[in-house]
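ESCALATION

Customer reports they have been waiting on this structure for their group meeting. Please prioritize. Original submission:
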Amino acid sequence: MCGRYVATRSPEDLVQLFQVTDWRPEERLEPSWNVAPTDQVYGVLERRPRRDGGDGEVRRQLRALRWGLVPSWADDLKIGARLINARVETVHEKPAFRRAFVKRRCMLPADGFYEWRRIDDPATGRKRKQPYFIHAEDEEVMALAGLYEYWRNPDVERDDDPAAWLITCTIITTEATDAAGRIHPRMPLALTPDHYDAWLDPSHQDPDRLRALLTTPAGGHLHARPVSPAVNNVRNNGPELLEEVEVPQQP
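Update from on-call: job pushed to the front of the queue and completed.
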């Protein structure tokens, strides 16, 4: 799975990098070195603005999304905490994801992601989870493949109330390879720049062709380094979380 990641790029950088045409300054997010489920995250998506009545031109947007997809039919927002990832093997079939996979796809910019491996700790004689930061060898931003969905809050009466609608997202994952595979069996999928347009275009709805667009982040050219267990606490957030630490030699 992908349960934590790093997203520190400014919206100005992301707008340029992903050729965004529609961004709302009021949705600016602070850099995060410890993005966790239910956090607000940047997502790149294409859709027709609601203010145009759904008949206007499709625009590429940079939006603030809540990580943890809440299907439109869900009764409770809490389901999102269990739907932070969607397996590529079944994403086109699962009721929670299949509609979004066909019509509402997005990219989630990331500097890298965290995974954990159980190791023997000689100081305690017990096993513990050691976090690793996995990122592109060239330090370029990753465009993680995601889905987004709109959820109508039943506690808000008016549709035109900003609080009436919540936009949520999930990250698509696959079996891990390369550096990530030595640490955890699953990893996020990503898009290469030549596939951005096809992935985001809501008119592309063939599940097999869509799945064929997904690739290993950074083309598999990944680097993994052990980092401080401080990342385990979602309240810790800062560049120091990415500093490499020594790990006890394993038998």
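Sent to customer with the following note: The helical segments are 11-17, 98-103, 178-181, 196-200, 207-212.
Escalation resolved.
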